[in-house]
Structure formats: structure tokens, C-alpha cells
Amino acid sequence: MTAAMATTAIDNERAEAIRWIQDQMADYGLTIEELAAAGCFDPPPPPPPPPAPVCYRNAEGLTWDGQGELPDWLGRAVNAGQSVEFYLVG
Questions:
Q1: Is residue 45 part of a domain?
Q2: Cα-atom radius of gyration of the chain, to the nearest Å?
Q3: N-term to C-term CA, the chain
Q4: Residue 32 lies in a domain
Q5: What are the CA-CA distances from residue 56 to residues 9, 22, 60, 78, 79 (Å)?
Q6: pLDDT, tens only, 8-33
Q7: Which domain holds residue 72?
Q8: Per residue in 36-46, pLDDT tens?
């Protein structure tokens, strides 16, 4: 498929989507103002932040990113005499 053909296909899909939206608005008696009031044109929310990298992992696959309090599984291991560094990833 050439670039021109791809552009034409995208333009056709876009035109079809616009016609569908216009049909739906006509069928339900919707106006642009009503759609705007319903938040249809609000920008999307920002994506969630990426998960923190895993810094510690045990044999069961439980993980901790090193932020905040020690998780229960790591606290129990430390209380039993194991070092935190034993679970360090990498």
C-alpha cells in the first residue's frame, strides 16, 4: 500500500466516523452544546505515572520498590535475621 493509498483510507475512515456521529446526534437530538456540557470535549486525564521500579523481590515474587515502610514479607525476613540486601534485585 502506498502512502497516498494509506492517507485516502484514513480519510475515508474519518469521514465515515463523522457521518456516524452526525447520525447518532440526529437520532438522539443531541447538540454540540449538550455534548460539551456532558464533558465530551474535555481533554483526557493525564496517564498514570509509571510504576516504581522493583528494587527488592523474594522467592515468592513479592516485591517492594524501596519507598515507604518495609512490607510485611520483608519485615518478617529482617526480623528473622535476613539482610535486606539479600532481596535486592540486580
A1: no
A2: 27
A3: 45
A4: yes
A5: 49, 54, 12, 13, 16
A6: 989 999 999 999 999 999 999 999 99
A7: 56-87
A8: 999 999 999 99
Could you tell me if residue 39 is left (phi over 0), alpha (psi between -120 and 50 degrees) or otherwise beta?
left
Q: Alpha-carbon distance 75 to 15, whole Å?
A: 59
Q: Which residues, in sequence order, are bridge partners of residue 56?
A: 64, 88
Residue 46 lies in a domain: no
Domain total in the chain: 2
Output the CA angle 41-43-45, nearest 5 degrees. Answer: 135
Model confidence, pTM: 0.46
Contact 56, 84 (CB under 8 A): yes
Query: CA-based angle 45:14:34, to the nearest 5?
Result: 55
How many other CB atoms are found less than 10 A from the CB of residue 52? 12
Residue 43 lies in a domain: no
